[in-house]
Write a structure and sequence with these properties.
232 residues, alpha/beta, seven-stranded mixed sheet, 25% strand, globular, ABC_transporter-like_CS, ABC transporter ATP-binding protein, transport, ATP-binding, ABC_transporter-like_ATP-bd
Length: 232
């Protein structure tokens, strides 16, 4: 990968983020950049602040100090209504355990973001079926999350995160609960789709094999981002 520093304005950037949970500081001046179309892995040990960093960058929580910009706009100071809109339309989020809605079928879980955006149910389900096929889980449309394998459920979660055509996908330990084969299937599907659509991915992981799928890797230690390491 070519050196992007100084050659392009980042799509998403954090500067000197500080965030505390009670008396515990999760972030202590963390700074990181994500460029359009880039896959960035954030690694670090458990408790190093990786998930907190993701939550700040995705607008799920607000930092106590520092700044987050998205598309050149000061993101962390936007009103909650605007943040919610961005999370629905331009961001996709995948968590370790998928967080699918257990009462809904795989098809309706994937269609949900489109339905919330006002798409007709028939059209939303048709598009959801196409995304399930893209992620190799066609034929599982009527199954509920409890009836899916871990790998299938996570690919359904990826389809749900990507169905709106987001500019950024935040993936928080997306393979942490999977075996090696399912992990490879999930990461292959995520990377292929991100490359195809030009979607940027912020990947939180403690697994070096998962981080190897990224263009770049940064390491978070004691709430601070270490110097960049080129991995691809």
């Amino acid at each position: 990968m070519s050196d992007r520093e100084g050659t392009a304005v980042p799509l998403l950037a954090a500067r000197d983020l500080v965030k505390a949970h009670g008396r515990t500081r999760a972030l202590c001046g963390a700074s990181v950049e994500l460029h359009a179309g880039e896959i960035l892995a954030v690694t670090g040990t458990s408790g190093s602040g990786k998930s907190t960093l993701l939550h700040c960058l995705a607008g799920i929580v607000r930092p106590d100090a520092g700044s987050v910009t998205y598309g050149g706009e000061r993101f962390d100071q936007l009103p909650e209504k605007r943040l919610s809109e961005l999370r629905r339309t331009e961001f996709g989020v995948v968590f370790q355990f998928g967080q699918l809605i257990p009462e809904l079928t795989a098809l309706d879980n994937v269609a949900l973001p489109l339905l919330l955006a006002g798409t007709r149910r028939q059209d939303a389900q048709a598009t959801a079926g196409e995304w399930l096929e893209r992620f190799g889980v066609r034929g599982q449309e009527d199954l509920r999350p409890g009836e899916l394998s871990g790998g299938q459920a996570q690919r359904v979660a990826l389809a749900r995160a990507l169905i709106t055509g987001p500019k950024v996908v935040f993936a928080d330990e997306p393979t942490g609960a999977l075996d090696s084969l399912a992990s490879e299937q999930v990461m292959t599907a995520l990377v292929h789709t991100a490359r195809e659509s030009g979607t940027a991915v912020l990947l939180i992981t403690h697994d070096a094999q998962v981080a190897a799928y990224a263009d770049r890797e940064v390491r978070l230690s004691d709430g601070i981002v270490a110097p960049l390491e080129v991995t691809a």
